[in-house]
Amino acid sequence: MRVATTRRLRLPRGEGAGAWLSAGSVALSLLALLALLGLLAMRGLGHFWPSPVALVVLDDGRQLAGERVREVPLAHGEGLERLYRTGNRDLDGARWDWVRVSAIDAVSHPAELVVLERRRWGEAIGRLAAVEDDAGQRIEGEAAWAALEARLAELTSLRRARDTLRKEVILPRVGVFEVEGRLDPDFASANARLRELQAAMEGGRLILDTAEGETLVVPLEQLLSARRPNAMSPLDKLTAWGSGVWRFLSEGPRAANTAGGVWPAIFGTVLMVMLMSILVMPFGVLAAIYLNEVAHQGRMTRLVRIAVRNLAGVPSIVYGVFGLGVFVYGVGGRMDEWFFDETLPSPTFGTGGLLWASLTLALLTLPVVIVATEEGLARIPDQQREGALALGATRLEMLSRVVLPMAAPAMLTGMILAVARAAGEVAPLMLVGVAKLAPQVPVDADFPFLHLERKFMHLGYHIFDAAFHGGDVQAAMPLVYATALLLVLVILVLNLTAIFLRHHLSTRHGALTRR
Known about the structure:
Layout: H1 15-45, E1 53-58, E2 63-73, E3 80-85, H2 89-92, E4 96-100, E5 104-108, E6 113-118, E7 123-132, E8 138-140, H3 142-170, E9 178-179, E10 182-183, H4 185-201, E11 205-209, E12 215-219, E13 223-227, H5 234-250, E14 253-254, E15 259-260, H6 263-294, H7 299-311, H8 316-339, H9 354-379, H10 382-390, H11 395-422, H12 429-432, H13 459-468, H14 473-509
Antiparallel strand pairs: 1-2, 1-5, 2-3, 3-4, 6-7, 6-13, 7-8, 7-11, 9-10, 11-12, 14-15
Helix pairs in contact: 1-14, 3-4, 6-9, 6-11, 7-9, 8-9, 9-11, 10-11, 11-14, 13-14
Keywords: Cell membrane, Membrane, Transmembrane, Transmembrane helix, Transport
Subcellular location: Cell inner membrane; Cell membrane
Domain ABC transmembrane type-1: 266-498
């Protein structure tokens, strides 16, 4: 009877420690990445969860109502200090309040405390005293909250109808006011309807009693939302959280980028990356084919390869200066002189825009595409080329039908690296087209539909502007975290799309081209 035995695989001396170190490094990198994503998600997405509102009574008799933000120790071990977001900036010019924990007498969470989100002055926090309609009729008590919710639902419907009318009817007809010498009837009726909607949104006001004993009067037309966090159930809070996340993704920014959403920045980032990829891939692939398949492999070719690799290390701001001087002032200025002379001195293409930003980032990522594609071409065995030529194929047919399909995964690898770098670049975009606020995306129903001369918003620049140029850094920081998480997810989606396509091509053309 044969007894089965097992052999233990023994690694050569020293390789076992190296394998463990490699595995540990990979695990540490993954943990760091997960920790980063967790921090961004917790600080960013947690901002949209309705936090409880505390009513704080201090030892000197003063009261304040606000959402607790954080607690930090004082210098020299003198106790703790707590930060509350109190809102009501139009009353005292501040929306934050630092309070010594030792000075707090009592903290409660009354169910009647209301948090209002306004178009101007940010949040307002207090007790709902009354709601007045257009006729001056005053509604108090619990009926006031029901009337407020009904009016907010009506205002939301009216705003949606107004925005649709502006986008689909009025904006496409701007500049065409007359048809055959008469006022365009569609434009006139749309303007009349717009005035009706605006009039329907006006009127009515809300009276709010603050914790400090002051009275705040808020026009209902200025309200965006109202909630009572202390009286909300977990399901209500989850619904409010989902609504807040959706508004962040679908609306434009407001209040100097410290509130609102980032939809124009999402659209601008994705569109710029797509245009950059369309521009850089043909030139990068053709350059790699010439260097590896056509050019004589001599000293000059080696110098060109060294130059291409050195270009990959040039700081991005240098490319921005190059794009500003060559594309914006050079090519764009000439285009204005040739085709838009009647609009000068106001530039059309002689200023930063989507086209020049895409071209600048295409130059920035061109060395990455060339190097990745050339490495893929170099890995294809010469037998593939020789076999195709021996069967009677021309050199062009050999390149287009044999070599390029096998090198397609390497090309997509170059595109993945280019997308990852271009989507996060900010410095060159500040010179060639990015804007702090561009509420209109560069795509609309007007010919030529894609407006390459327009400025656009970018998620990376939005993070930079909100974090360092906003008037209220404390209010902007949660949105900075949320936008950073969104930028990482956008890059991840773009890269995964290219990775899946690369995997499909690798599987199709054999294991030799797998990466």
